[in-house]
Amino acid sequence: MSSSAKGYSRVLTISDLHCPWEHPDAFDFLKALKKKIKPDFVLNLGDEADAHALSMHDSDPDLMSAGDELIAAKKRLHKLEKIFPEMTLLHSNHSSLIYRRALKHGMPRAYLKNYNQFLEVGPGWEWVDDITIPLSDGSKAFATHGMSADGLKLAMQYGLHTIQGHFHSKMNIQYFSNPSSLIWSMQCGCLTKQSSLAFEYARNFKMRFVIGTGAVIDGQPKLYIMRLDKDNRWDGTIV
User: Fold this and answer.
1) H or E segment at 104?
2) What pLDDT, on the 0 to 100 scale, is given for residue 57?
3) Alpha-carbon span 180 to 20, nearest angstrom
4) Residue among 17, 31, 1 at smallest CA distance from 145
5) Which of 54, 108, 161, 238 has the fewest C-beta atoms lying within 10 Å of its C-beta?
6) Do 187 and 151 form a contact (C-beta atoms < 8 A)?
7) Phi, psi at 87, each rounded to 5°
8) Long-range interactions of 200-206: CB distance < 8 A, separation 24+
9) Predicted confidence (pLDDT) at residue 5 exceeds the cutoff of 70
10) How far is the C-alpha of 83 from the C-alpha of 110, rounded, in Å?
């Protein structure tokens, strides 16, 4: 992915998929967004894989084992790689579970495979902690998996536009102004299937997951809601 002299003009984000527990229409939705936006930079906001069986919390015994879940997640992610062979991904709390488990049990990093190896994806996928993205209007956007539930506060702290995933029930764009600029914060919802047993913890939450993702077009944030029908399937529209 190449940028203009000023920066990227069409940034597509991919909000939390939690493969293999993604929404069943997530990939079709992303294909449609790719066709519509024609991104010059693709940013996965993290939690591309769920790793429920490796959770630091109790895992559901009726779900897959850690090995079977990884096999299922890789199948989904290989489909995603065919859609987006080049992508930057943010380190995140779910995807990093293997490393956090290893740390907890005193395993040196030299024994561990990196993301590309254990997910069996090519070098076009690159993981980073956080990233500051140059935009075509001359501004910059700081992207992180999820530092603060208050996205606007985070933008004010950094003095930059901010992009976040992680907070599944938050999908919004907020603004603040200082004497020199107008700065926005974008929180991108998720692309997960909330009815999965992997999200049983959220069953009684008053706030429901918001299904969709975001983009930055010519320096301006844009949210794309996945509009669902009565059966909770995508209705095929992009608005």
Assistant:
1) helix 97-104
2) 67
3) 44
4) 17
5) 108
6) yes
7) -160, 140
8) 200/60, 201/57, 202/168, 205/169
9) no
10) 32
CB of 210 closer than 8 Å to CB of 169: yes
Q: Strand pairing partners for 187?
A: 164, 172
The single-letter code of the amino acid at 101 is: R
CA 189/CA 214 separation, integer angstroms: 8
> Who's near 67: CB < 8 A, 6+ residues apart?
none
Position 217 pLDDT exceeds 90: yes
Per-residue pLDDT tens for 94-109? 888 888 888 888 988 8
Is-contact 222 216, C-beta < 8 A? yes
Which domains are delineated in the chain?
A: 10-225 (3.60.21.10)
Q: How long a stretch of residues is the chain?
A: 239
**Joined tokens for residue 113:** 């495979």
- The span from the CA of 42 to the CA of 84, in Å, is 8
Residue keyed to tokens 């076009």 = 124
In whole angstroms, give the CA distance from residue 66 to residue 106. 19
Q: Tell me what the mean pLDDT of segment 182-200 comes to.
A: 89
Sheet holding 10-14, edge to edge: 125-128, 87-90, 41-44, 10-14, 212-217, 220-225
| Half-sphere exposure at residue 61, Cβ-oriented, CA atoms within 13 angstroms | 0
Tell me the β-bridge partners of 188.
171
What's the order of all strands across the beta sheet hosting 140-144?
Answer: 131-134, 140-144, 161-164, 181-188, 171-178
